[in-house]
Write a structure and sequence with these properties.
Layout (H helix, E strand, L loop, with lengths): L1 E6 L4 E8 L2 E2 L5 E11 L4 E10 L5 E3 L5 E4 L2 E5 L8 E8 L2 E9 L4 E5 L2 E17 L2 E16 L6 E11 L4 E9 L4 E9 L5 E4 L4 E5 L4 E3 L6 E3 L2 E5 L6 E5 L5 E2 L8 E10 L6 E10 L8
Antiparallel strand pairs: 1-2, 1-13, 2-4, 3-4, 4-5, 6-7, 7-8, 8-9, 9-10, 10-12, 11-12, 12-13, 14-15, 14-25, 15-16, 16-17, 18-21, 19-20, 21-22, 22-24, 23-24, 24-25
Length: about 290
């Protein structure tokens, strides 16, 4: 679940919380998780990753409904009978406490792509509290929930990018690109969610997304090179849009043999004559790791 929040005095903040559950060949169930918050006004970035195993009360998840916990990080669906889908998030790390209640404004849409299935809630209104360094603030904003299920034994992707764009006019755009470890295209798909919740599958020829040549950010943590600006256009639906990070350093570095990735908030601008801000979003990127010299 990713979200963009604003305090009553206009301070902009963004958060991303991710939970994973997978079964190892030896039968052990592991729960990796990550949580990050960025204060967009100051550029301060708070981030932590955790890994727990099932049992001992440290991590658990239910299969009948969305309810997952890793330590004191918790994401659950709290929908009452006959009501709109609702979600609660609670998470803490050093210097940060986040409590959010979200209400889905549009119905779920499903992405079925072998060997996985994704349930997407692209428009969730949120309110709650965010405390930084002991100072609690009321916040409101919007979020996107991405729930993926797969029987794949592991990732075979090289470069991977997932774009979740929320336009201020009430529409959302989802794009996912993945390349194999050999550099060939593994899959490409994209969706446009209209104001009324109608979902249009975008054919590859009907949209374009790409990195701006030469525009990159070099991570001081992992020495990975990431793009720092993207262009996006949907034929007949949008002008050329520019997706620009609110801060470059939004990388989640791996510990040990885990994966490093960039999961960061972006602002969306009109590239045309107006040049105004048209929305916001989140981008998740994986880049193939380079072998280290012995």
């Amino acid at each position: 679940m990713t979200g963009r929040l604003t305090t009553r005095d206009g301070v902009a903040l963004s958060y991303a919380i991710m939970f994973f559950r997978y079964l190892e060949p030896n039968g052990v169930v592991l729960y990796p998780a990550s949580f990050s918050v960025i204060d967009e006004s100051s550029g301060r970035f708070f981030s932590e990753r955790r890994l727990e195993r099932a049992g001992f009360g440290l991590a658990k998840a239910t299969t009948g409904e969305l309810d997952i916990r890793v330590g004191d990080w918790h994401l659950r669906e709290t929908t009452a009978a006959g009501a709109q889908p609702a979600f609660d998030v609670e998470a803490k790390l050093i210097g940060i406490t986040l409590t959010i209640h979200g209400l889905a404004r549009k119905r779920q849409f499903v992405i079925r792509a072998t060997p996985s299935e994704q349930d997407e809630y692209s428009s969730i209104s949120c309110n709650g509290q965010l405390a930084i360094d002991g100072r609690a603030r009321s916040v409101h904003g919007k979020a996107w929930l991405d729930h993926e299920m797969s029987n794949s034994p592991g990732s075979t992707f090289g470069a991977f990018a997932q774009f979740r764009v929320q336009l201020d006019d009430g529409r959302e755009i989802y794009v996912e690109n993945a390349d194999s470890l050999g550099g060939r295209i593994a899959h490409r798909y994209a969706y446009l969610v209209e104001r009324d919740g109608t979902v249009e599958t975008l054919e590859p020829a009907s949209y374009g997304i790409g990195e701006r040549p030469g525009a990159t950010w070099l991570s001081p943590h992992t020495r990975t090179k990431y793009p720092d600006i993207w262009g996006l256009q949907v034929d007949g639906k949008t002008d050329l849009l520019s997706l620009e990070p609110v801060s470059y350093d939004q990388e989640s570095p791996a510990r040990g043999s885990g994966l490093s990735y960039w999961d960061g908030a972006v602002d969306v601008y009109d590239v045309g004559s107006q040049g105004g801000r048209l929305g916001s979003g989140y981008v998740l990127m994986l880049r193939p790791s380079k072998p280290r010299n012995p």
